[in-house]
């Protein structure tokens, strides 16, 4: 029978199998932007781990947009995927709650919703930002700007809080730029960064809250203030391969990609086998690593 199946190139019908077993062996991995260096690397590692466990992964981007998030979640839920890993946009708390109430396995990544009992794997954003800011202060930078997105989401609030706590505890002034996400998406981030630098000529260091903001900032330096790249202390949240070869090399807060992916699957696998996903929930918080390079050294 097996020889004949091979001869006629027989392949099992996965849709028919899923009807019989109730399992599609497919997971959805939804992030903010799959082209972002951090998310794409994380997705690639997760794909390998999932494959070893017998699952295939569908990747998608929600662009931090609630309408798109809901549309994608409803589409894949209708197609009866087995579970979701979601980097949630800000207004889909009720959608996630409905998935859980429908007994659909969900693990939130990177950020979570206060008051929602849902499995999540995140990093300690506040401590990571505090430690990075403190590193600049210890290297005698006194006027540290913090460039971030205007967001109420937990990961960005944590990064802002860590920076503000570090400067306050050391008697320094907080100097922040919060750019609306839609403006960054429209490509206007560089304009905001340039105006911020023009308004604060006293800055001796800049901490970028995301790697894409850091990239915009470095472009602004190169195009408008080429001397500043060597005069300012610079740190970026999330490492990027280009930071290793930039001149000067860029100090970054590095998230533990392999550990994040492993923990995601560690949390997701039991959910896929349980009859009740509400039985237990896990909120896992991981530590980051500050990779010190030339850009944050004492000038």
Short recap of the structure:
The protein is α/β, with parallel strands linked by helices and 299 residues long. The chain is built from 13 helices and 12 strands.
Question: Would you give an account of this structure?
Answer:
By secondary structure, this protein is α/β, with parallel strands linked by helices. The protein is built from 13 helices and 12 strands. The protein has helices at 2-7, 14-21, 37-52, 66-78, 93-101, 125-138, 154-169, 181-185, 189-199, 211-224, 228-231, 241-245, 257-273, and strands spanning 26-31, 56-61, 83-86, 106-109, 119-123, 144-149, 175-179, 205-208, 233-237, 251-254, 283-286, 289-291. Strands 2-1-3-4-5-11 form a 6-stranded parallel sheet, sandwiched between helices. The protein has a 6-stranded mixed sheet with strand order 7-6-8-9-10-12, sandwiched between helices. The chain is elongated, with a radius of gyration of 22 Å. It starts with a helix and ends in an 8-residue tail after the last strand.
């Amino acid at each position: 029978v097996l020889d004949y199946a091979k001869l006629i190139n027989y392949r099992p019908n996965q849709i028919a199998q899923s009807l019989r077993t109730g399992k599609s062996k497919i997971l959805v991995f939804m992030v903010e932007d799959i082209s972002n260096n951090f998310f794409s690397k994380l997705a690639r590692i997760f794909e390998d781990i999932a494959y070893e466990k017998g699952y295939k992964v569908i990747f998608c981007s929600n662009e931090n947009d609630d309408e798109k998030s809901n549309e994608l979640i409803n589409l894949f839920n209708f197609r009866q995927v087995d579970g979701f890993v979601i980097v949630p946009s800000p207004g889909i708390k009720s959608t996630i709650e409905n998935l859980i109430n429908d007994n659909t396995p969900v693990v939130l990544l990177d950020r979570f919703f206060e008051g929602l009992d849902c499995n999540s794997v995140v990093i300690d954003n506040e401590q990571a930002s505090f430690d990075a800011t403190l590193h600049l202060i210890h290297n005698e930078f006194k006027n540290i700007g913090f460039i971030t997105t205007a967001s109420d989401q937990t990961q960005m609030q944590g990064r802002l809080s860590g920076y503000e706590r570090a400067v306050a505890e050391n008697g320094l002034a907080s100097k922040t730029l919060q750019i609306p996400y839609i403006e960054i998406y429209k490509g206007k981030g560089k304009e905001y960064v340039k105006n911020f630098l023009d308004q604060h000529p006293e800055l001796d260091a800049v901490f970028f809250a995301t790697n894409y903001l850091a990239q915009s900032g470095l472009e602004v330096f190169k195009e408008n203030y080429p001397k500043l790249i060597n005069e300012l202390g610079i740190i970026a949240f999330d490492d990027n391969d280009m930071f290793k070869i930039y001149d000067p090399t860029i100090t970054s807060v590095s998230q533990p990609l392999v550990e994040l992916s492993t923990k995601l699957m560690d949390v997701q696998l039991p959910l896929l086998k349980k009859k009740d996903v509400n039985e237990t929930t896990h909120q896992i918080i991981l530590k980051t690593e500050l990779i010190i390079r030339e850009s944050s050294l004492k000038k």
